[in-house]
Amino acid sequence: MSEATSTTAASSAARQSSVFKLTFRLPIIIWQSLFFIGPLCFMVAMSFFIVRNYRMQEDFVMKNWLKMLGRDYFWDSYVLTWGLAGIGTVVTMLVAFPAAYTLAFKASEAVRRWAIFMLIIPFFTSYLVRIFSWYVILAESGVINAGLSYLGLGPFVMLNTKFGTVVGYMTLTLPLVIILQTFALANIDRSLVEAAFNLGCRPFRTIYRVILPMARTGLIIAAVFCFILSFGDFVSPYYLGGSKPPTLPILIVDTVKSGQQWPRAAVVAVVMMVTLFVVAFAGIMAAYRRRVG
Amino acid sequence: MSDNRPLRWFLYGYLALVFTFIFAPILFSVIFSFNSDRFPTIPLGSFTLKWYQTVWNDPDVWEAARTSLTVSLSTATIATLLGFATAYTDYRYSFRLKPVYLGLVLLPPTIPLIIMALAMLAWFAKLGISGQVMSIIIAHSVLTAPFAMAIIRLRLSQMDPSLESAAWNLGASQWSALRRVIVPFCLPAIISSFCLTAAVSFDEFAISWFVSGLNKTIPVIILEIVTGNIDPQVNAIGSFVFLVSMTLVIIAQVVLMTRRKKEV
Amino acid sequence: MVAPLVEFRSVVKRFDDFVAVERVNFTIEAGEFVAIMGPSGCGKTTTLRMLAGLEAPSEGEVLMEGRVMNDVPAHERDTPLVWQSLALFPFLNARENVEFGLQMRGVAAAERRRRALEWLDRMEIAEFAERDIASLSGGQKQRVALARSLVIEPRILLLDEPLSALDANLVIRMQSVLTKLQRELGITFVYVTHSQSEAFAMADRVVIMSRGHIAQIGSPKDIYRAPANRFVAEFVGRNNIITGTVGKATAKTVTIDGSLGSFTVDLGQHEKPRQGDTARFVVAADLAQISTAKPRRGNAIACSLISEEFIGSVVTLFLEAEDGSELKVQLQERELSKMDLKQAATIYLSWAADQAHYIGAD
To answer: Which candidate, C275, C264, C271, C273, places its Cα nearest to that of C297?
Structure first.
């Protein structure tokens, strides 16, 4: 008798506990499946749909793929996007490094914390307005050229160039890359760096032989994030880069906004996702590969 | 590392330059919003409030501001609830598919916005809920829930692991321990997460632009003005947007920092 | 027959592959002060947590007053715990912390407040009632934690190394606070600690655990004077453990031959061992004696002095026997001053036959 009551009590307690557990576990699973995994899967499926009489119909045809991948302008865009994002990543990593080095090794704890706080701010402010601001600053009669004219220089054409695009990319990525690089560098055991100096290692040699290899994982992750953000951005190449020829994100925008050719936009998006997946995977492999030799 | 004082000053100078680059667009946007010239440059024209007046008198901007506010507050609420539930699950339980679970939650920010925008647009059209304020809210919640999760999870990792058990031990059921101990402890992080997700949602334009239909948000208005021509109205709206986002971000940071200081 | 307040019946607790507690049986009577002691990882905290319902036993039963508690959730047991970290709620002040348990039991606000203040007063920290937890000292926090647990008037209080964060002086003071409280309230205290001095100073009975098993249960004196096995003898410390093989054995005594010599030891309650078996016995450091001249009695070991350690008026001498093993002896400083050890080449450590304690083979 007493045993029977104790089992019922136990099962009711267990049931309550699992209700509690699922209340916290399930919502996000349902939400993300419905509104994150769902849309992405549907987009992949959509790249096989067909458009007839300006209406999209569910189907399974290779037409969109053949059409997009068979066009030269698609591959021009692809190469351009790679090139711009690649240049942007290299430039951003190089520009960020001395700043991160200063924050990680030269600055005090308080300065470092404040700098990180400042670097977080842009991340939550309007990227669009900042790019528009650059547009005005970089224009032919804009702030920079007006300033340079006092020195008898210029005007330089900066808008609608790759330079403009890269400035835009950096507006998006530089704060994040500095933060990630600073964390990567700050995690290095400083006594090893000092040991290298004490052994007579010259500064640049120390950076190359000691600091870079030890911070490798963090630096590669920073570069991967930088590349993903640049590769997927349509605002900078559009407003600062002149959008001709278009990058892949601009291709998506144009295709969607100028008609019902969503399936073709989906093809571009899927190609982008696969590319980024490969880049991220390669980056992770490189970051966590055991050092050879 | 002895006689490197020049190097040190050089590096600090460089750092200042980098920060100038990062904050220049924000600064110029604010300055130009008070500048009378139609195409702002230096030397500056005279001081004016006319851009603000134009914006103030534009019913479309008011409409968009209302939509933006609705979207960002709703997004912040949903994202913070989802983020809290997820952070608590990660803190409290371990289970076999946890890496998959966490991946599901944390992955959205790594997908380019333009791709999410296209995918959401198509999916909402398929579900028959496109072009509504609700669609923007849903999309933004997916995007911002990971931030909420990260902020609250960080806070939970600062908690004495015995605290929740102590509440049970004193007679609190799982639910009342959650309400009386976990939520009060996480409150600073919950406020922060609310502010930051609201800020992200308030500034997001790509997804909003694709899925909003006629319910334009402020960033969508900006995008449309910018696409047309140069118009310093954008600086006025932009300064307002900066003011809102920065306020939210600073509140978030201050709440987290003062709380931490008090406990140390 | 009245059921004991607490009973563990062959309780096992496994975490994945790791067995934290392995077939533990013991009882605790109402009004006892029991200490559970052992090195870290011995399962003492897990045992306490099972009693509080914070861990479920993998096998066996935990009973309270005859009722099987295995499936009773933690919040339905009146088994308040004083945590090692104290686990005070940082967002509540001292009084609100104390009120927490009462609030969970649905006590009305005014009554709650009255009883909380009463307990804070009893713990001599009434003036800090409205203070933030962060602004209290270690000792004050300790008292808030005790008040928070005791205000719900439990029959049993669990304590998990509550004094480990305090400095030595405060530990001594809190020990007397705890023993006084336990005596006044007449309730059961179960006190988990790795510190022998805390356990022996406060507990009526001590449970010594080792790797999930109970090594010995007894009064502090039993454990100190009659360790049940080698683990306890070593853990308690201040013991000389001497190993050898069994030589001549009668029903009452046994001769143990080892590298230090041949000694006769009382068997006590132990059964007569077989000749040739390994056997050990213990000579407590404070029962051994030293002399510079070779004593008449047989149980003596010739040593040389290595070092001395003074703690108050008690001196511990560390000696080395001829075979290299280290031996200890404890004596009063004034006894030591009568001897001239520095001059002596050889010091003899000796003991009366009934002062050695036989512990068998393990």
So the answer is: C264
B185: contact with C, CB 8 A cutoff? yes
- Residue at B51 is within a domain: yes
Interchain CB distance below 8 Å, A39 and B116: yes
At C276-307, the pLDDT tens digits run 788 888 888 888 878 777 777 778 888 888 88
**pLDDT, tens digit, for every residue of B30-74?**
888 888 887 777 777 788 888 889 888 989 999 999 999 999 999
Say yes or no: B173 contacts chain C, CB-CB below 8 A: yes
- To the nearest whole Å, the CA of A277 is away from the closest chain B CA by 10
Q: In chain B, what is the greatest distance between 2 CA atoms, to the nearest angstrom?
A: 71
The runs of H, that is alpha helices, within C2-93 are 44-52
Interchain contact, B170 vs C152, CB within 8 Å: yes
Question: What are residue B57's phi and psi, to 5 degrees?
Answer: -90, 5
Residue B24 lies in a domain: no
* Strand C6-15 to C18-28 pairing: antiparallel
In a domain, B27, yes or no: no
The pLDDT of B187-196, averaged and rounded, is 94
Number of domains in chain B: 1
B162, C80: Cβ pair inside 8 Å?
no
The CATH number that domain A63-288 falls under is 1.10.3720.10
Residues 6 or more apart whose Cβ sits within 8 Å of residue C135: none
Q: Which domain holds residue B61?
A: 34-263
Indicate which of C45, C48, C75 best probes the interface with B, i.e. most B CBs within 10 Å of its own CB: C75
**Contact state of B85 with A24 under an 8 Å Cβ cutoff:** yes
**Whether C46 contacts C22, CB under 8 Å:** no
Helix (H/G/I), strand (E/B), else coil: B49: coil
What is the pLDDT at residue A203? 74
Domain ranges of chain A: 3-46, 63-288
Across the interface, whether the CB atoms of A131 and B107 are under 8 A apart is answered: no
Residue B6 covered by a domain: no
Res C54: pLDDT:
93
CA–CA separation, B165 and B170 (whole Å): 9
C157 Cβ under 8 Å from any chain B Cβ: no
Quick check: C66 contacting A, CB < 8 Å? Answer: no
Please name the residues between 13 and 32 in chain A that touch chain C, using a CB distance below 8 Å: 13
Q: What is the pLDDT of residue B259?
A: 64
Mean pLDDT value of segment C92-118:
95
pLDDT tens sequence across C158-178: 999 999 888 888 899 999 999
How many Å lie between the alpha carbon of C118 and the closest alpha carbon of chain A? 35
The reported pTM is 0.87
ipTM above 0.85, yes or no: yes
Residues of B in contact with A234 (CB under 8 A): 114, 206
B230 at A interface, C-beta within 8 A: yes
What local confidence, expressed as pLDDT, does residue B185 receive?
Answer: 95
For A79-116, b where at least 16 C-beta lie within 10 A, e where not — what string?
Answer: ebbbebbebbbebbbebbbbbbbbbbbbbeeeebeebe
CATH number at residue B255: 1.10.3720.10
